[in-house]
Amino acid sequence: LSETGSALASPLAALRGPGARPRQQPRLSLAGLSVLAEEPHGAAPVHFLQELPSCQSARRRRGGTQERRPALLGTARSRGDAARAETGELADRPAREHPKSMAEKRRIRDFQQADTEHLSRWKKWRRTSSKSLKKALSEVKGLSSYLVLWRHDIHSIEGKFGTGIQSYFSFLRFLVLLNFIIFILMFSFVTLPTIISQYGIFNSTIAYISPKNIDDICTIYKPSGNKGLVYFYTYLKDLLSGTGFLEVTSLFYGYYSIDAVWISVMSYNLPLAYLLATFAYLTLSSLWIIKRSVEGFKQNLVHDADPFQSYCNKVFAGWDFCITDPSAARLKHRSLQYELQTDLQEEKLKQKIAERKMGEKLRIYTLRIFINIIVIAILSGCFYSIYRVTVFSQENSSVNLLVQYLPSMVITLANFIGPLIFAFLIRFEDYTPAFEIKLTLLRCVFVRLANIGVLLFSLWSQIAGCGSDKCKPCGYNYKLYPCWESDVGQEMYKLMIFDFIVILAVALFADFPRKLLVTHCSWKLVQWFGHKEFEISDNVLEIIYGQTICWIGTFFSPLLPAIATIKYFIIFYVKKIVLIHTRKPAARPIRASSSNFFFLVVLLIGLLLAFIPLGFSIARIPSSKACGPFRNYNTSWEVIPDTILQFPTGLQQILFGIASEAFAVPFFVILCIIMFYVIALARAHKRVVEQLREQLVLVRSERESCVSCPLHHLAQPPLLFPSLPSQTHTWLPTLPSRPLFLLHLFWSCS
Amino acid sequence: MGGSASLIPRDLLSEYQELTFLSKQEILLAYKRFSELLPKEERENACSARVPKSQILTLPELRANPFQHQICHVFSTSESGDDSMSFEDFLDMLSVFSDSATSDIKSHYAFRIFDFDNDGILDRKDLEQLVNCLTGQGEESQLSSAEMEQLIQNVRPAGQGMGTAPGTGLSAHLPPQILEESDIDKDGTINLSEFQHVVSRSPDFASSFKIVL
């Protein structure tokens, strides 16, 4: 191997020739690291450290050789050795991964090809086949990039406004996709079988549910489908509120009053399919979101763990190279300057906070408590008014459209006013600017999502809670809500439609007139209003709120995801137009990395919040007896045990065993143990990282003190005299290459 | 696009595909954009022509970029040092800035772009220039010298030796800044491996260090 190594060394040395820029290699810093190699107490910890999983994974990731890093670190070693290391690399890495110019890459490639000449036929075949496979894959990838929705729109937005705003639009695209897939799921498993059987396609028939053991009183459900002459106004009203003719369409739960669908001889258990599809879309959404956020979560965890990096991230990754617009570039300059300055100021502020006197601290804390009490008061005010309004609108639902939409309006109003008040109040609380933003956001998220919860709670208080024994026979208020699931579905439908209308109206009647005013009117007062900034966090909250509604509503109204898909599709264009024509980007932009993570976390919170009402209404509230697939069951959940009872006994026992405490408790304990193990491992890694860091600094300072000592030259000959080849060759392989190893470990652990 | 496609020979095209991170469509688009930069009579053999730097900088993708000169400088293989670019240099550049390039190669070139004096290390002067590029060259948009000092410099006072361990004295109070964050071996400069290490952990780097035609 050494022969081929030296033979290969010469063309490689030539490769470093004229084309490459003259680049001095890092000199002293490396020499400093290498001192470690001589340290007497070397061996034992190295072996111990090599056992660490992080180190092993690093070795795997870095191509299995510890020799790679030296090549990268440059010529501190003798040339021949570096070249040898590099040849190992050459064989591994495709030519395009070399940081060289095209001509040099071509030479590397030719060299690699020449290398394959004396390989066995099998290896040759494997190499060529893997190459052609890669090529085909890249072709497919290139073609599929045409299929990606809005590729060009997002690209142009990125060019004009940077990655922060681009991440918002990518997020919107993700939601469109998610909703579309939920729609496909619900449609193909719930709506399609029903429609097929209704029209008798494929010889399918329906087994309508025959109400058993139910009081007749409960089954009276006559949706007021309009018959005969209908005013246009009524039509519009029904369309907006989901009543009338819409109530009995496949949009709502009440339509699916079918027990099973028979397609020739196969029977399709619709109630089971309905429930399983619901679980499926919830699981799918959560898995997808978690998968997307894991990456960001890892970064955030590392970030939180050490406050290093923040400035490096800002300086080294500060510029968006994708910006193509000069005015956007000016804005980016300004925002970067602003960001750096505010961060530096924040550091000073933190110092000031650390030096606060006792009395001052006391004053601030009382102020904060006081303001938090105000916030809670505002929140409970919002909740109470939503509750009152919902009850009122349910009691007088037939009066007119305004009353029907009252809850939606009040919620939107609360969503609008709440954040304004919070933004005002936070100024007095004297937090650092970064924390201020986070806290305000947190409060806004809470308002938005809790409002939906309160609405549902007040609906249920109407449905299930009845003082006297009004609802004894059926378990819910059957007089007012013969088919309560459809009513909840209508409420969600209204919320979604109203949210959409508000977004459109704000764009049309607030953003554009404002822009016109500002550009065509030079009054001071008008100019003071100024351009509005495109605030990502507000916009994201808006669409996440809509998504939460969709998640909750899909069980009660299976085609709601379709509406959501269309809604987000239109919102994308509306927001794009608003952004390009009326807004300017925020002065303090959200970074793409943190914002992506933030979006997904809030989305996850929304999803978890959707679990609660859904779980509650599936498992606890008696399903309505007048309509829907679950008429024969006490609650919707009962379908599952019912189905399991039809399984063979062995399987039954296993399933019931899994659901029992005897299984659940040990399972939980084992999970806890695994979790503690992982936490302990993470802690150990962190400690190792710290130790390595300290050691690196120590090595550095040792070198510093060694500069003046006369033995210094003798101590590290191969490094200061890289042209001592004979010595290096014998010396190198025996060394555990500790400094490099340290760096390695440092890389892998952190 | 169909017209220009015929001008790159098939085997050359597939060679480019192999040697860069670009897809076929991207290479063809790059070719189109590149030949548009050339004067009319040279468009026939755009593969061998060189475009002067001033012409390259008219591309919108580079026009707004504060590092435009460095980018030209790093990717140009011109022997005379006038930073002109051939088509292959241009492809090299797009390949490094493409989405599918590895982070290793991205960080390597980022280091060379940020290394304004081409000496293989990022020292104080490089960092200062880098920050100035970020905040804009205008007088009013630059950070004040005190801020710059705070941002770049290690927290130890200049007179003191390099041996101050972190966590003692001043550094316990003052925040860690660029050098403190990235200079692992504490020699006052950032070398390539330190830079790659820091950048590999920077969450925004991969998303910001890209140019798509």
From TrEMBL, chain A:
Chain residue ranges for the region called Disordered: 1-25, 55-106
Q: Record's superkingdom?
A: Eukaryota
Q: State where composition is biased (Basic and acidic residues).
A: 78-106
A GO cellular component term found in this entry reads: plasma membrane
Q: Where is the TMC domain?
A: 483-593
Quote the biased-composition stretches of kind Low complexity, using this chain's numbering.
16-25
| MF GO annotations | ion channel inhibitor activity; mechanosensitive monoatomic ion channel activity
Key words, A-Z = Membrane, Transmembrane, Transmembrane helix
Q: Name one Pfam family in it.
A: TMC
Membrane disposition: Multi-pass membrane protein
Keyword Transferase attached: no
The membrane-spanning stretches of this chain are 174-196, 272-290, 365-386, 406-428, 440-460, 597-616, 654-679
Q: Does the keyword Transmembrane apply?
A: yes
- Subcellular location(s) per record: Membrane
Q: Which GO terms describe its biological process?
A: sensory perception of mechanical stimulus
Q: Which family does it belong to?
A: Belongs to the TMC family.
Tell me what this protein is called: Transmembrane channel-like protein
From which source organism is this entry? Taeniopygia guttata (Zebra finch)
From TrEMBL, chain B:
Keyword set, alphabetical order: Calcium, Magnesium, Metal-binding, Repeat
InterPro entries named among the record's database cross-references: CIBP, EF-hand-dom_pair, EF_Hand_1_Ca_BS, EF_hand_dom
One of the record's GO cellular component terms:
growth cone
Q: Does the keyword Nucleotide-binding apply?
A: no
Q: Does the keyword Repeat apply?
A: yes
What range(s) does the EF-hand domain occupy? Answer: 102-137, 177-205
Listed under GO biological process in this entry are: apoptotic process; cellular response to nerve growth factor stimulus; cellular response to tumor necrosis factor; cytoplasmic microtubule organization; DNA damage response; endomitotic cell cycle; negative regulation of apoptotic process; negative regulation of cell population proliferation
Superkingdom is: Eukaryota
The entry lists its GO molecular-function terms as: calcium ion binding; calcium-dependent protein kinase inhibitor activity; magnesium ion binding; protein-membrane adaptor activity; small GTPase binding; transmembrane transporter binding
Indicate what this protein is called per its UniProt record.
Calcium and integrin binding 1
State the organism's lineage. Answer: Eukaryota, Metazoa, Chordata, Craniata, Vertebrata
Gene behind this protein: CIB1
